[in-house]
UniProtKB/TrEMBL annotation:
GO terms for cellular component: extracellular region. Residues 1-17 form the signal peptide. Residues 86-336 form the Amine oxidase domain. Pfam families: Amino_oxidase, NAD_binding_8. Transmembrane segments: none annotated. Gene3D superfamilies: 3.90.660.10, FAD/NAD(P)-binding domain (3.50.50.60). This is Renalase, FAD-dependent amine oxidase. It comes from the Eukaryota.
């Protein structure tokens, strides 16, 4: 059995682990490490400590399936739809321009439920709060070091974190990258933005009719009545609302104190929705690497950095910066591992 380490428990890493299990169970032992406290990555669903509040999606909001991806990822969509993890998103998204034949879906239990599903299907050993800092080449395997200083060896390593975080890794990664690969990775560009979740008490009912709305403001770009978006508004649980800032605001305020930025966003939100009641809780998230603006040329799905010991990078930067892009990337990693092992 080859020991495979998938770094990153976001959508790419979780689908990758799941498909490895389904297609190569007898050949691989799968381990998934993530530096965060829980899985999800940019498909993160946040809860307020008060259990009478609904959760809120801080990253990805809904899934837009194009006709092409509906066809090629048919099995993934049917699996998630049949389990109730995905549902057609039929309510109003003001300002969304949906192209011909595309369909929106939402995740009734939050976007992280999809990631958790694939991780659970993978049977992988998932370890959170394990921050990979260095990779060393040791004969036919990789020795992987974490921030706490512990080291473990793997036959194959798949890196699924955003590209700048791959390039920050110490050890031998920089030594084995070709000049062309280095240039391609250096060329990847991400947008940055802030997300704020507001959690309300159970007696609150929003006075507006939309579920989500795009805004042309310099600070706020998008607002979602998050629990309504997921058809999750039920008596006894307070609704949640999510705000995403514009990319220009994200860039301008990236290095500022989060509390200061949160105050600016909330001030703007209450100008936009003056009747909004006061929340019982607020959470602000800085997405330094939000969506990919410039991907690796020709969207190859993954990049094999070294054949032996095998080191592969994947994620939305190697495909498209959305649900289907991650699935496509994970599929291409699994095809590469099947060919190699
Ligand atoms: C604000 C926002 C809105 C979005 N809206 C949508 C949308 O509506 N629809 C849509 O389809 N997509 C949307 N996206 C894009 C979508 O969320 C991403 O394309 C997708 O989640 C990327 O998944 P990933 O697994 O490739 O990367 P990530 O989710 O970033 O996962 C990488 C993981 O690696 C971990 N990690 C990083 N460095 C290390 C390290 N050194 N050691 C260990 N672990 C590490 C991270 O903690 C993370 O969990 C949105 C993204 C954002 C941020």
């Amino acid at each position: 059995m080859s020991r495979v380490l998938v770094v990153g428990a976001g959508l790419t890493g979780s689908v990758c682990a799941c498909l490895l299990r389904r297609e190569m169970a007898s050949k691989v032992h799968i381990v998934v490490w993530d530096k965060a406290r829980g899985p999800g990555g940019r498909m993160s669903t946040s809860r307020h400590s008060d259990s009478s509040c609904q959760s809120a999606d801080l990253g990805a909001q809904y899934i837009t399936a194009t006709p092409g991806y509906t066809h090629t990822h048919h099995s993934v969509y049917s699996e998630l739809l049949s389990l109730g993890l995905l549902q057609s998103f039929d309510s109003i998204i003001e300002g969304q321009k949906l192209s011909d034949g595309s369909r929106n879906y939402m995740t009734p239990r939050g976007t992280s439920s999809v990631v958790r599903h694939f991780l659970s299907e993978s049977g992988a050993d998932l370890v959170c709060e394990r921050h990979v800092t260095s990779l060393y080449r040791r004969g036919a395997s990789w020795e992987v070091e974490t921030k706490l200083g512990d080291r473990e060896r793997f036959d194959v390593v798949v890196l699924t974190m955003p590209v700048p975080q791959i390039l920050q890794l110490q050890g031998d990664v920089g030594n084995v990258l070709s000049v062309q690969q280095q240039q391609q990775l250096d060329g990847v560009v991400y947008s940055s933005r802030f997300a704020v979740a507001l959690f309300f008490p159970p007696d609150v009912v929003f006075s507006f009719s939309w579920s989500a709305r795009y805004v042309d403001g310099s600070i706020i770009r998008y607002v979602a009545a998050d629990s309504r978006k997921r058809n999750a508004d039920v008596p006894g649980l307070g609704p949640s609302l999510v705000v995403h800032t514009s990319v220009s605001f994200g860039l301008e305020n990236l290095e500022k104190d989060k509390e200061e930025v949160q105050a600016l966003i909330l001030e703007e939100l209450y100008k936009l929705l003056p009747e909004l009641p006061q929340p019982v809780g607020v959470k602000c998230q800085k997405w330094r690497y939000s969506q990919v603006l410039t991907s690796v040329p020709d969207c190859p799905g993954h990049m094999t950095i070294l054949d032996r010991p095998l080191l592969v990078c994947a994620g939305d930067a190697f495909s498209h910066s959305n649900f289907d892009g991650c699935v496509a990337s994970a599929r291409s990693v699994v095809a590469a591992l099947k060919a190699a092992l």
